[in-house]
């Protein structure tokens, strides 16, 4: 990744780049730590960290010089040594990741003029390298395996929290580093809340159960949603489910390099609106996934940016009827020049347990 970053840096008008967020540090180095900073210029790439991580960093990180920031030294002092060696006049900071206070602190402490990065790293991370896609797929397969086993445990009397705990346990058991986010498991009337929190509510006969979850492999997230019925399914439940599935398929068919995010969203949204549920679909069709669970690109009514080949995008339309139920179905798509490849293999035909 160093060469990729340095090449982009040469065209960005900055003399150097400073990465302090965990996700961008991991993108550049492949190394996970709670503390550290990356200094990158045309002349050098240096990873700074403290005593807790220095041994592991030196053993694992390739392509970077690894330097320890001692107990009596600040990170800005350590970075300033590189700035001086490079005679750098400007250094880009992660304005979107840093708090205002942290940005001002770095700006005050650095000997070069600090400039906002203005999406520099987001643009680099937008197009995934083959290794990144491989990690996402591995994480997705773990999540799918966990779902397949968890479906055997969903029955009347089991609580939403118990299902969420089961998914979490199995994803960790099968190799996930952590969860991509806290799993969403909602049932019955609770399933009309797109980001509802698992509760002690017992699943009942006739409920829809919506599960939105994923795990992390080598820093990269997976994300999927499946909705299943328990015991029985009314005509209305079936109609809503089939509408969401058809909308998802329409959006997937529209997803390709060069398509605007709004156009992909619109392909799904028009189908839901045509079925009379337009007011019940209040979020976008999808979002990017990578080191962050939500990153660029987006597919929503206001997303005019065109999708690039190599991006990973979720496909997750939904219909939510307060007081009744909700349905969401979510896959992950790898955008290509001619369309997209669905990275999700879990079945999504309506399932009645």
Task: Characterise the protein shown here.
With 353 residues, this protein is α+β, with helices and mostly antiparallel strands. It folds into two domains: 2-125, Creatinase/prolidase N-terminal domain (Creatine Amidinohydrolase, Chain A, domain 1); 130-342, Creatine Amidinohydrolase (Alpha-Beta Complex). It has helices spanning 2-10, 22-29, 54-60, 75-86, 100-109, 120-126, 130-150, 160-173, 235-254, 261-274; strands at 16-19, 37-41, 45-49, 65-68, 90-93, 113-116, 184-187, 208-213, 216-217, 220-221, 224-229, 286-288, 295-299, 312-315, 318-321, 325-328, 331-336, 339-342. Helix 7 (130-150) packs across helix 8 (160-173) and helix 9 (235-254) runs antiparallel to helix 10 (261-274). The longest helix is centred in the middle third of the chain and has 21 residues, at 130-150. The model has no long low-confidence stretch (mean pLDDT 96).
What can be said about this structure in brief?
The protein has 353 residues and is α+β, with helices and mostly antiparallel strands. The chain has 10 helices and 18 strands.
List keywords for this structure.
353 residues, Creatine Amidinohydrolase, 6-stranded mixed β-sheet, 18 strands, 10 helices, Creatine Amidinohydrolase, Chain A, domain 1
């Amino acid at each position: 990744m160093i060469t990729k970053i340095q090449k982009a840096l040469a065209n960005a008008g900055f003399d150097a780049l400073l990465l302090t967020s965990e996700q961008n540090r991991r993108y550049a180095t492949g190394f996970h730590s709670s503390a550290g900073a990356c200094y990158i210029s045309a002349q050098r790439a240096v990873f700074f960290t403290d005593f807790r991580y220095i041994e592991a960093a030196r053993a694992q990180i390739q392509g970077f010089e690894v330097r320890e920031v001692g107990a009596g030294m600040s990170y800005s002092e350590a970075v300033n040594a590189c700035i001086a060696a490079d005679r750098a006049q400007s250094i880009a900071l992660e304005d979107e990741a840093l708090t205002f206070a942290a940005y001002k602190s770095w700006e005050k402490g650095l000997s070069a003029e600090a400039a906002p990065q203005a999406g520099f790293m987001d643009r680099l991370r937008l197009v995934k390298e083959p290794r990144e896609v491989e990690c996402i797929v591995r994480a997705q397969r773990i999540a799918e395996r966990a779902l397949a086993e968890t479906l055997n445990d969903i029955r009347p009397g089991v609580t939403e929290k118990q299902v969420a705990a089961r998914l979490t346990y199995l994803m960790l058991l099968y190799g996930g580093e952590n969860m991509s986010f806290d799993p969403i498991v909602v049932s019955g009337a609770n399933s009309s809340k797109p980001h509802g929190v698992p509760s002690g509510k017992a699943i009942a006969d006739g409920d829809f159960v919506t599960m939105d979850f994923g795990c992390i492999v080598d820093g990269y997230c997976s994300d999927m949603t499946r909705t299943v019925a328990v015991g029985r399914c009314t005509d209305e439940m079936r109609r809503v489910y089939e509408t969401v599935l058809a909308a998802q398929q329409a959006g997937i068919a529209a997803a390709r390099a060069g398509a605007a995010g709004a156009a992909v969203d619109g392909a799904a949204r028009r189908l839901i609106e045509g079925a009379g549920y337009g007011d019940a679909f209040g979020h976008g069709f999808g979002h990017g996934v990578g080191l962050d669970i939500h990153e660029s690109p987006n597919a929503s009514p206001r997303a005019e940016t065109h999708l690039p080949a190599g991006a990973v995008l979720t496909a997750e339309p939904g219909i939510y009827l307060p007081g009744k139920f909700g349905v969401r179905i979510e896959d992950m798509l790898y955008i290509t020049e001619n369309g997209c490849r669905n990275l999700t293999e879990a079945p999504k035909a309506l399932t009645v347990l």
